[in-house]
Amino acid sequence: MRKIISPVGSLALAAVAGLVLVGCAPAAETGGGSGNDGNASGGDAASERVEICYVTAAEAHPYVTPANEAFDAAAEDAGATVTRLSQEFDVQTGTEQLNTCIGQNPDGIVLWPLDPQAYIPGLISAQDAGIPVVLINSPMDDEALEFVTSFTGPDVYDQGVMSADLINELLGGEGQIVIIAGQAGNGTTIGRTDGFTERLDELGSNIEVLQIVNADFDQQKALEASRDLITRFGDDLDAVYANDDTMARGFIDAWTESGRSLDDIPPITGINGQQDAFESIRDGSFYATIVQSPREDGKLALNTIVAAAQGEAVEARIPIPLTIVTSENVDDVEPAF
Amino acid sequence: MTTPVPPPSRTVNRGLFSHIGARLGLPAGIVATLIAGTLVSDRFLTVQNLTNVLINMSIIGIIVVGMTFVFVTRGLADLSVPATVAVGGLLVLGLESSIGTLPAAIVGVLTAAIAGAVNGWLIGYAGLNPVITTLASGTIVLGIAQVFVGGVIVYGDNREAQAFLTGRVFGVVPVIVLIFLAVVIAGHLLLSRTVLGRWSYAVGSNPSATGASAVPVKRVRAFAFLLTGTLAGFSGVLLGITLQTARPGIGTGYEFDAITAVVVGGVSLLGGSGTVLYAFGGLLFVQLLTNIMVLLGVPTEPQGLVKGALIVTAVAIDVALRRRGGRS
Amino acid sequence: MNARTTIVTSDAFHALVRNRVIIILTATLIVGATFVPGFLEFRTASLGLDRMATLGLVAIGLTVVLIAGQLDLSGGAILALSGIATIGLQAELGQIPAALVGFCVGIAAGAINGFLVVVLRINSLVATLASMLFFRALCHLITESRPISGIDPFFGLAVSRPIEGTFTGRTLVFFVLIIALHFWLTRTVAGRHLFAVGSNPASAEASGIRSRAYLFGAFVFSGTMAGFAGVIQSLSVNTGSPVFGENIVLVAIAAVVIGGTRLEGGRGSALGTLGGLLTIAALTTAMEYQSVPAYLQAIVTGVILLLLILLDRTVSGSQRRDVTLAALWRRAQSSRSSRKHERTLAS
Predict the structure, then answer these.
(1) Which of A117, A121, C81, C92 has the fewest beta carbons closer than 10 A?
(2) R_g over Cα of chain B
(3) Could you give the domains of chain B?
(4) CATH of the domain at C155
(5) Which residue of B128, B263, B302 is in closest CB contact with C313?
(6) Coil, helix or strand for A293?
(7) Which pLDDT belongs to residue A26?
(8) pLDDT recorded at residue A33
């Protein structure tokens, strides 16, 4: 058999050499930024660019993309540099990217949490390293909040409550509905769904939730899940509550695909306030949505982290405004995106 | 290619029973499912429900035709399917505003075909391992497609095309199902009635002996991947038009769904046997089973328990029958 | 012989390809150091390696499976399942026993894979695809598709914190295991037998090696490593989730193949896998620091992978000679002395 020692031995040598090289390189552990600027980030922050590491949910998503763009635009205005990493809706990747961010030693970190708990160890590390963290859009559990500087974004529980009120009123307290929920385990999903179901209990409503499906805030998955829902319940459905407009669109597509008419479609409520939702409200195939601007979301998060990075005091909880839109006011309100 | 486990010593003559068993197993399974479905829910045996099953099958079914060729020619598997599907979807919607839907669709299919051709060349001619090659080429192709559309979600606005594809002929038969069935029939005829089809079986059963005869082994192996890439791109185009939105992950999981269908249908991974109709049967069986689970209220993800068990059962039976027949 | 054939069959080219892992790794490190400020700092390396540790554990298991000529696609699902067991049972059993159970889940899953491939004789691609679907579905069923949290986020922190300012706990564990694997593969009889089984199980069986036992063992090992990775991963984030590990297997296979192990079986090396992992870790770190979008990162990784297997093919297609540096030196020496000898004779 061929000698396999030598090339492998030389590989080992190279690996060791590489590590030695790394070890001997001047360690910039003293809290200086890892950017080209080289100066210590502590002192005169006003005159130099603030460095932000932003761990976002995804690159390509109807809501997240405009939020990211607004974030970048706000960074331009504030004179901040942003390194953006995308979790692509994968929590595991996100926790690792949070560690990467911490390693870069930026002036501030913005995290879009896809899970209410998993990032806590990372947040603890960030706090130890003295880096302020702002959470954007999705809530985490209360115990996480002691490790972050601020949470900016919509009140998702409230959105669930508002949706429950809308549907309960529409159906007069009786009926059978399904819920198309977002990514399982995601704080936004939990907030919007629990807010809804708990509000129905509170109101003493007789509305029955036939099934809750998870469609990951994605239109295609919602289409596939809706096919199943329609197959199973069909015309028994009195209303549909979708955690966002993107998924609601999936349901509408599935309805037409099954050969049914849009005139018979059960009333749907979504969240986000997308343009196509507005159009559907106008033509009657959509009942209501709640406008939540991704641009507000992104801008607010950036401004908050820059303020925190520059040592200013910021509020621990900064909400963004929400507006309910139905056929009554659809022409008076601007769609979120 | 993964090496097979060494066989234990003896072989037994393939009896009439096992021969019939192999051919009848799947149709019997489908009939059994139909009966089970009727017992489970009164919605099952309705035209509406069964048409739904066919619609669900259509996109993946087009890909299954290609994957059958890959299996038959012993090409193992084409893991670049999610990428070629996404390419089709992204390009048809991304270009539709500048050059129109039909030209954009053609560009989408052609690009996917080129990707398939590259796979075919690398695997058929350069002799690289299909699993790792299609894996690598898939990531590259998808990356390039995303660069082209700027890495975001692409939206379309051609409602007429969408309405056409999601519409029905004579108010009953969905257009997309017709397209799917046409592809299945064409694929079946290609594999069973043409010279290319005969060559495919030859290449899959005994590549070296076939190579010694006049069969162009490399070209046949390459063709299987070219076909799969093209069909995947085509289904991606259809998917894009149906949804009027395309994101890079649009084709995720389709490769494993296709492999599941082909395997359950009794087409062997080792090549040289099976037909497109077998794969169609496998797909139908899996879809009917899924439909029953949906009607029973089983949530989507846990359905994998049944799928996994199904694959194991189908292949184990196939392996056992083969061994009795003296092949391994 | 035209120029191209001359280049391709030359010893220098062979040496280049033979040592391609080191070359790629060094090239990546140089590119990273040039374009990414702070790349060569120890802290960066430590974090980059930590990030790779989970992937690395799975890759260790896959190296063995690939050398044995098989595939294992179920690693990610096993990772998730073990993680769920580790976290989910904490309340009842306590943290350490729960982690042990998680570890055992990996072993059991590996044994199931081994059973499917060796006893039922299902092709490993199909068998592990089926087990992947099954285990993943099991994860979703147990957790109702929601992630579960452990009782104490500080418990598993040690795993991902640098120890005494050097590497993190899991990185060290990974290094120990991969060196151990290297020694097992190269210095033990069993290791050499594995290579034999991978190149030709039938002839290995004929020469007295119990191929089926080795194959079974390979899957158990791969499952155990995936389970181990799952335990560590879930402890480090104090969360067990049914969607963890979804892409890990494919990246791990890429790392193993970049490292020189072939899918056909019979060839491979643990240190090669290490090189492949370091390359991917360096690439990912460098690209993320530059905010390179995920899809561009995918192109880079895919191209490197493709180039390497193509190169590997060109080399193995042409004449094979020992192209280690030592052998090249010896050949140079002997040709010089033989020429001297001829001159002496001729004069």
Answers:
(1) C92
(2) 20
(3) 16-324 (1.10.3470)
(4) 1.10.3470
(5) B128
(6) coil
(7) 34
(8) 34
What residue in C sits closest to A100 (Cα-Cα)?
C47
> Sign of torsion, CA A216 A217 A223 A228?
positive
Amino acid, res. B254: Y
Task: Give the CA angle between residues C70, C75, C81 to the nearest 5°.
Answer: 145
Question: Distance between CA C248 and CA C233 in Å, rounded?
Answer: 12
- B297-328 per-position pLDDT tens digit: 887 788 889 889 988 988 888 888 777 665 44
> For A232, which of B55, B166, B294 is closest by C-beta distance?
B294
Distance between B19 CA and the closest CA of chain A, angstroms: 37
Would C6 be classed as within a structural domain? no
Task: Note the Cα B308 to chain centre separation in Å.
Answer: 17
Q: Which two tokens stand for residue A278?
A: 């507005």
The verdict on residue C326 lying in a domain is no
Q: Is residue C19 part of a domain?
A: no
Q: In what order do the strands lie in the sheet with A288-291?
A: A206-214, A174-181, A239-242, A268-269, A288-291, A323-326
Distance CA B26, CA B32 (A): 10
Burial class (CB in 10 A: 0-12, 13-18, 19+), C131: buried
| Three state DSSP letters for C235-254 | HHHCEECCCCCCCHHHHHHH
* Residue position matching structure tokens 């911490």: A102
Distance, CA of B79 to CA of B70 (rounded, Å): 11
Contact A259 B48 (CB under 8 A): yes
Q: Does B4 touch chain C (CB under 8 A)?
A: yes
List domains and CATH numbers for chain A: 49-154+294-320 (3.40.50.2300), 156-291 (3.40.50.2300)
CB contact under 8 A, A219 and B242: no
The overall average pLDDT reported for chain C is: 83
CA nearest to C40 within chain A: A22
Q: Given CB atoms, is A83 within the 8 Å cutoff of chain C?
A: yes
The yes-or-no verdict on residue B20 having pLDDT over 80 is: no
Percent of chain B with pLDDT over 90: 39
Going edge to edge, which strands form the sheet with A80-86?
A80-86, A50-56, A108-111, A133-136, A150-153, A317-319
Note down the domain range covering C51: 41-321
Specify the range with the lowest mean pLDDT, choosing from A22-31, A182-191, A300-309, C223-232: A22-31
Residue of C nearest to B151 (CA): C295
pLDDT of residue C317: 58
* Alpha carbon distance A309, A45 (integer Å): 9
Residue bearing the bigger pLDDT, B7 or A239: A239
CA distance C13 to chain A (A): 14
Side chain identity, residue B262:
V
Residues 6 or more apart in contact with residue C273 via CB below 8 angstroms: C59, C60, C63, C178, C255, C256, C259, C261
User: How far is the C-alpha of A320 from the C-alpha of C132, rounded, in Å?
Assistant: 42
Whole-prediction pTM: 0.84
Q: Structurally, how many domains does chain C consist of?
A: 1
Helix (H, G, I), strand (E, B) or coil at A112: coil
- The answer to whether the beta carbons of residues A194 and A185 sit under 8 Å apart is no
CB contact under 8 A, B122 and C310: yes
CB B107 within 8 A of CB B90: no
Does residue C116 surpass a pLDDT of 90?
yes
Give the SS3 label for residue A318. strand
B300 has a chain A CB within 8 A of its CB? yes
Of the candidate ranges A24-38, C200-214, C310-324, the one whose mean pLDDT is the lowest: A24-38
CA distance C74 to C82: 12
Beta strands in B244-323 (DSSP E): 245-246
